[in-house]
Backbone:
């Protein structure tokens, strides 16, 4: 009887394993079929939308100087001294000149751009002129660039006083911080429609600003000039540079002595950005004092691959994985233990 019981138990165990295998295969089959069905639906959606354009920024073709409109200019006599800053609120002693004010770029619309300018403490007359543009779009070059990043001052924790920034760029150059486009920071327009603008208008306004600003500060007209920025300035900087090169070819025009551009963390478009995010965050950092970055989670790698191929068709349904991956990127970067990253 004991032997019979053991045989029956063994038979039941084998049947259980067999049933488990069958059920597992069934579930796998359903999963594969479901995945195939999802892929089929996705391909159908893609084919139905092939005619749509991807949500990239405005195309920027080579400038044709014959199509460039005259640049708006106004007399600037007396404006330089009017813009001179004696002292910012809560500012410590400074050994350099600084200016701030508005330059009108469209009188009819009442559109004007605000700037903050910090000259170099030593030999400002021989050092280059640098334009800084924050990105966003919509980030203030004065509030962020000047007061939190590369400007001559930083804000103390009391929110009322300033202290000197040891790594300020004006130690090696004369730096203009431009609030652009209109609606950013202190820049404004009397026409509300100007607050919905595009890259081409932004470049045109920035160029008009520069021409008038150089008339206000004529001592900088022949100075070596560089355009710099970060983030969405990946659009602003090269597009403004392209416009300057085109305008410099015109006769009887203010020639801007453009020597180069520099962009940090340049934003080109979503597809390029997310592909490179994945590449960056699955690589190792080699700075002395930094531990290697851990690999991204599989879901983020899959998202980056999907994103690079089908980004034009994404909709709000995809915002969750997009947000998830962004948080994962930040966790990886924030968790790096870097004690000796070389200063740029």
Residues:
């Amino acid at each position: 009887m004991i032997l019979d019981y053991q045989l029956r138990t063994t038979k039941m165990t084998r049947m259980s394993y067999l049933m488990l295998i069958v059920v597992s295969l069934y579930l796998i089959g359903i999963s594969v079929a479901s995945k195939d069905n999802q892929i089929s639906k996705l391909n159908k959606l893609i084919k139905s939308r092939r005619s749509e354009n991807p949500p990239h920024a405005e195309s920027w073709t080579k400038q044709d100087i014959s199509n460039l409109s005259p640049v708006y200019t106004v007399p600037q006599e007396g404006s330089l001294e009017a813009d001179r800053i004696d002292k910012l609120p809560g500012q410590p002693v400074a050994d350099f000149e600084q200016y701030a004010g508005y330059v009108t770029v469209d009188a009819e619309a009442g559109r004007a751009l605000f700037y903050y300018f910090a000259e170099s403490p030593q030999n400002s007359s021989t050092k280059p002129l640098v334009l800084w543009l924050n990105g966003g779009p919509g980030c203030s070059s004065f509030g962020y660039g000047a007061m939190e990043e590369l400007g001559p001052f930083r804000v103390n924790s009391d929110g009322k006083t300033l202290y000197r920034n040891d790594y300020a760029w004006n130690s090696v150059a004369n730096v203009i911080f431009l609030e652009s486009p209109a609606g950013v920071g202190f820049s404004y327009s009397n026409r509300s429609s100007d607050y919905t603008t595009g890259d081409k208008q932004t470049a045109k306004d920035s160029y008009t600003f520069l021409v008038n600003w150089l008339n206000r500060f004529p001592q900088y007209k022949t100075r070596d000039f560089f355009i710099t920025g970060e983030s969405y300035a990946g659009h602003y900087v090269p597009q403004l540079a392209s416009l300057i090169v085109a305008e410099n070819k015109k006769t009887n025009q203010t020639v801007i002595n453009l020597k180069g551009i520099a962009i940090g963390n340049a934003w080109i478009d979503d597809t390029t950005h997310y592909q490179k995010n994945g590449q960056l965050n699955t690589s190792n950092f080699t700075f002395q004092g930094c531990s290697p970055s851990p690999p991204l989670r599989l879901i983020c790698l899959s998202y980056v691959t999907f994103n690079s191929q089908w980004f034009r068709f994404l909709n709000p349904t995809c915002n969750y994985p997009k947000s998830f991956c962004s948080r994962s990127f930040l966790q990886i970067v924030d968790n790096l233990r870097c004690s000796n990253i070389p200063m740029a």
